[in-house]
Every structure is written in C-alpha cells, then in structure tokens.
C-alpha cells in the first residue's frame, strides 16, 4: 500500500451518490435576463436546472443623482459581495437618506449571506424604500432558503410584478417539486419571455413529463440556445436519445454547453462510442467537457478509457481528480485510488473537497489501511471539511473497518450533539453492525429516535445487518416489519438481502425461501447470494441448489457460486455432485480468485493467499499457526 502526506458509498451503509462527487452537465448555465428599469439597472439570473436559486446583483452603473449616495451604494455593494455584510450595514445606518438602490443592496447582501430574517426585518421597516426589484430579491431569498411558502405569500402580496418576478416564483416552485403550481403560474402570466418558457420546459423534462415539455417547446414563439439545450437534456434523460440527436442536429447555433448536454445524453444511455465521437468533433472544449466524458465512461464501467482521457487533460480541477478516485474505488481498485489522490496532492493545484475526502476514505476502508486513513484524517483536520457530517461519517466508517471501533465511537461522541445529523447516526450504527455488536447498534438506534431523528432506508440497512451479525433474529424481523409498515421509506434490495441473510445465518432457510417467493419484484443477485451463503453455513443442499441455480441465471460467470455449491455438496457427503459442479466450472474456464489477507507491520504490508509459503518467514508463521490450533483443540482459552 501507499504511504503519503493526504458519506447519497461510504462503506456499506452510508451512501453518497456518485453524481455528488463529480460534475455532470445537464444544463449548468445561467439564463441572464437583463431587466431594464428607469433607474437603476439590475441583472436577474435564473437557473433552469434547479441547482441555483434566483440571484439578484447590482449593476456596476448607478444612476443616482446624489454623488455621495452613489458612492455609498457602490461601497455597500462591494462589501456585500465580499461577505462583509455587517460593515455594509454600518455604512447603511450612517447614511442620511438612502435611496431604493441602497435598500435593495443591503437587503440583497443579507440574503446572499444567508441572513434571511435580518433581510426581512429591513424589508418590513416603515421607512423602507422598495421597488419591484426589492420585492423580487426578497422572494428569491426565501426560495434560496428553501422557504417556499413564505416566498409564495410574499409574491402574492407584491403591489407590482414584472416578468422577472413571475419567473422567480415559477423557478422556486420548480426547485421544490411544485410542478403543477409552477404550471398554474405560468399559464396566468400576463406576459412571458424566453426565460419563462425555458424554465417550464426544463422543469417538465427533468421530472419525466417529457411529452408536455416537447409540446411547450414546439409552441415557443422564440427559442435561444438554452431552449434547445434544455430540450435535448430532457429527451436524453428520458431515454429518447435518438430524438435528442435529431434536435441537436437541427440547432441553429450551439455552444459548448449544448455539446456537453448531448455527450451526457449518450453516456446516460450507455452509447459511449457515439459520446466519444461527438467529444472528438467538438469545435472547442472546456473543463466540464472533459469531466462530462470521463464521468460517462466511469459510470459505464470503462475505467481504462476514462484514465486515458484523464491523463490527456490539459487542465484538471478537483472534479476531475475526484471523478477518477471515485471510479477506482467503485471498481474495487482502492490502492490505485490512493495513488491518484497522492498525485493530486503533489500537483499543488486542485485542493480536495468533501467528495474527494469521502471517496478516498472509502478506499482506506476497503484496504483496512489505518495508516493512510490516519494521514488523511490529519489533512481533513486542517480544512473546512472537518465538521462535514459526510466526512466525519466516512472517518467513522474508516476507523471501524480498520478495527478501531473505539476511535470511531470517540469521533461520534466528541462531535457536538447539535451537529449530529442522520448521516452521523447511520455511520455509527453501521460501524457497530460491522463489528457484530447488535445490542449496541439497537441502543444507538433508540437513542437516535429519542433525539428526534426519523430513520431512513440507510438506517434500517445498518440496523437489520447488525441484528443479523449478532444473531438477534426476532429483533431483526421486528425492525424489518417496522420498515415495511412505515410506508414513507422505500424498501429496496439491500433490505431484502439483509433479511434473507438474517434468516440464513440463523438456519431459518425455509422462512427465507418463503419470503423471497412472496417478493413482488424479481430477486437480485444479492438476495440469492445471501440465501446461498446461509445454505453453505447450514449444509442445506436442497435449497442451496435452488439458490445457486437462480444466482447463476443472474451472474452466469460467477465462479464463487460454483465453489459454494460444491462445498455444500461436499459437506453433506455428496461427493459426485460436488465433483460434477467443479468439472462444470472447469469446462467454463472459470477460476475463483484465491482468498487474500494482509497485515501491516512497521509500515510494511504483508499479504498472504491460501496455502501461501512464499513469505520469507513462512516456516515460523506456520509453526505458530500449528501451535494455536493445538491449543484450540485442547480447549485453551485466552483470558484478558
């Protein structure tokens, strides 16, 4: 392993969707609508991909007649942009007669700094000077703070509305899943511009209502490059990639974002050759173009071509590095992920972000690389991410997987109670599950409930797994029953696999089979694999044969399935059947990878496979093993 100075999957139970760690281009562009007022002039930006709230910024030009007021306005705007909002407020309070631009600048500054309540207090003052831009800024601030009901109420109270006000509210509904409310508002608009149309077309396309989106697109009185790109991205996302390509070819003009959207579409639909062909034809590429193509290749399992493209990149940012690290972790090549992270640090360019740390700590967990994990922990402690719940959960998971459960618990306990969220609780429950400490996992689960947190799907995976590893069958069945009756949590294949594993370990294989047969969905390989493992433990050849048959239908080239079935036959004395299974495995050219263990001693990793005698001290090692075996047979018990 490598030594160096470095939570949507973190381990088995804490998930961070891959798309959170990398940049996937759908329509990452801001539609700039310049709102011309008499005095002053403002720019309103709308995000049509829902990733950013409406943003209002002051124009550099200030048409205020009073030169002193104009200078103060400029200073307030500058201070607000720099995040020095309290200095801007002091300057505002010292002004004798601030104008509407001043009021709007200070209110917008508080909104930008996330101080929505302070912004509202200023807005509600009796002496406040407000115009349509001030009102729109306040509505946009509530949307940005995910307070859609307050934004809605304020919008309806507006004395005057312009097209930007309507667009802001529609975009707010779109971001918060209020599709029908957005459409109702769109239909009521006294006038619309291209931004209005683009917002609803993108919204409908992204939520799967693609036919409605296409009808609106065809009705648009005018279209810009954003309109076409939004429709292409929507069609691609909904599997209509050929239709998206026809639209792409019809575009009167394209920009780099249009090309990126089409490449993303091909990648999403597993048509990598066409994606690469389009990438090669691009008249110009930006950094997101490279990241988009690399992301697409990794998501489709083509790590080799992704690495080749990554090496050819003229410039790399943190997204580029994190994408490759995450790709290698997902493909089980954690050591290579650590090497890439080491290269990232040595370039003195891109700095790791939350996604980078989560992925690379996952690599340490997979390798049980405590030394590397501790070094990464030291780096994290010098960054703003040391209090990130995702990073802390990844650290808890890493220490747990490396056998340091006490350190993992200390990290959880040392964090302020107010800073704990569901991710943190899930992380520590999963840690105890990994170590087979079922009762402690249940105690933590109950404590979490008392703290006011509602369990999610990840919580139940960790909890049922903890019961399975600790042999707490009745408790595990009770929690699974709770999960099903909850109704608000989606029961997924991980839960089914955990329940089958719970019954399988306890020898209740008939119950496990009955459960699988009652499933409304087709059982996955994980479910059949859990049943086969239980059959292997309890030497049940009849059910084991069924599980192996079903598993091979899903994964016909899985050598491990043949080996388990052969072992089951052998353990029940059915030597002919065992031999027949191994012969079939040999005819197919399948070989099971030998089991491998490793231990790190004095910064050196020692790896061993089954029957390995290549180590320089193998004679001494086998002598010690024989000694331990003899003591075990004599009933020797080690006391603390």
Number of helices: 34
Mean of all residue-level pLDDT scores: 84
Give the overall shape, derived from the CA principal axes.
globular
Give start-end ranges of low-pLDDT stretches. 1-65
What helical percentage do the residues reach? 55-70%
Largest sheet: 3 strands, antiparallel
How many strands in all? 5
Side-by-side strand order of the widest sheet:
1-2-3
Q: Based on helices, strands and strand pairing, what is the structural class?
A: mainly alpha
The fraction of residues assigned to DSSP E strands is: under 5%
Radius of gyration: 30 Å
Task: Sum this structure up briefly.
The protein is mainly alpha-helical. Helix content is about 65%, strand content about 5%. The model is unreliable at about 1-65 (pLDDT under 50).
Folded structure, characterized:
The chain contains 34 helices and five strands. With about 650 residues, it is mostly helical. The chain has a three-stranded antiparallel sheet. The chain has a two-stranded antiparallel ribbon with strand order 4-5. A hairpin with a 7-residue loop joins β2 and β3. α2 (about 65-80) packs antiparallel against α3 (about 85-95) and α24 runs parallel beside α26 (about 455-470). The radius of gyration is 30 Å and the shape is globular. The model is unreliable at about 1-65 (pLDDT under 50).
């Amino acid at each position: 392993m490598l030594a160096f100075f470095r939570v949507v999957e973190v381990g088995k139970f804490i998930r961070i969707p891959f798309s959170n760690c990398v940049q996937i281009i759908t329509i990452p562009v801001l539609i700039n609508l310049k709102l011309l007022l008499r005095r002053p002039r403002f720019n309103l930006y709308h995000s049509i991909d829902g990733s950013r709230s409406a943003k209002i910024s002051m124009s550099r030009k200030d048409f205020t007649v009073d030169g002193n007021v104009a200078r103060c306005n400029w200073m307030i705007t500058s201070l607000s942009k720099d995040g020095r909002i309290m200095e801007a407020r002091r300057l505002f309070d010292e002004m004798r007669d601030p104008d509407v631009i001043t009021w709007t600048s200070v209110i917008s500054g508080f909104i930008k700094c996330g101080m929505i309540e302070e912004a509202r207090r200023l807005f509600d003052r009796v002496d406040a000077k407000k115009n349509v831009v001030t009102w729109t800024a306040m509505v946009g601030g509530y949307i940005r703070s995910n307070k859609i009901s307050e934004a809605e109420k304020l919008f309806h109270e507006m004395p005057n509305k312009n097209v930007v006000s309507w667009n802001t509210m529609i975009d707010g509904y779109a971001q918060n899943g209020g599709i029908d409310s957005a459409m109702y508002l769109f239909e009521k608009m006294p006038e619309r511009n291209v931004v209005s149309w683009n917002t609803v077309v993108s919204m409908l396309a992204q939520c799967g209502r693609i036919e409605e989106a296409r009808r609106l697109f065809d009705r648009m009185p005018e279209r810009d490059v954003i309109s076409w790109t939004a429709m292409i991205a929507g069609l691609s996302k909904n599997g209509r990639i050929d239709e998206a390509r026809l639209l792409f070819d019809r575009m009167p003009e394209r920009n780099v974002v249009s090309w990126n959207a089409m490449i993303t579409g091909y990648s999403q639909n597993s048509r990598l050759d066409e994606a690469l062909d389009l990438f090669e034809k691009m008249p110009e590429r930006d950094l997101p173009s490279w990241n988009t193509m690399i992301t697409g290749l990794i998501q489709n399992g083509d790590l080799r071509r992704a690495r080749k493209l990554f090496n050819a990149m003229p410039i790399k940012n943190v997204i580029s590095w994190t994408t490759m690290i995450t790709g290698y972790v997902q493909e089980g090549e954690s050591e290579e992920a650590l090497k890439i992270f080491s290269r990232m640090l040595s370039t003195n360019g891109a700095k790791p972000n939350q996604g980078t740390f989560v992925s690379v700590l996952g690599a340490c967990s997979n390798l049980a690389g405590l030394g590397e994990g501790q070094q990464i922990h030291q780096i994290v402690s010098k960054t703003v991410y040391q209090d990130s719940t995702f990073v802390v959960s990844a650290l808890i998971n890493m220490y747990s997987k490396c056998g340091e459960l006490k350190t993992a618990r200390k990290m959880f306990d040392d964090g302020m109670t107010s800073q704990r969220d569901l991710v943190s609780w899930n992380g520590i429950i999963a840690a105890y599950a990994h170590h087979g400490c079922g009762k402690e996992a249940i105690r933590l689960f109950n404590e979490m409930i008392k703290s006011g947190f509602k369990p999610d799907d990840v919580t139940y995976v960790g909890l049922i797994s903890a019961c399975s590893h600790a042999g707490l069958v009745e408790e595990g069945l009770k929690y699974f029953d709770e999960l099903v009756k909850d109704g608000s949590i989606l029961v997924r294949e991980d839960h089914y696999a955990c329940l089958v594993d719970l019954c399988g370990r306890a020898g209740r294989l008939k119950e496990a089979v009955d459960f699988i047969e009652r499933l409304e969905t087709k059982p996955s390989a994980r479910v059949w694999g859990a049943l086969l493992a239980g059959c292997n433990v309890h030497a049940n050849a009849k059910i084991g044969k069924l599980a192996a048959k079903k598993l091979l239908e899903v994964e016909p080239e899985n050598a491990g399935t043949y080996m388990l079935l052969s072992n089951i036959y052998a353990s029940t004395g059915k030597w002919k059947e065992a031999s027949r299974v191994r012969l079939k495995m040999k005819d197919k050219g399948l070989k099971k990878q030998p089991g491998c263990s490793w231990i790190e001693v004095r910064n050196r990793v020692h790896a061993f496979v089954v029957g390995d005698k290549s180590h320089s001290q193998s004679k001494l090692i086998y002598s010690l093993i024989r000694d331990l075996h003899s003591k075990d047979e004599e009933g020797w018990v080690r006391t603390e």
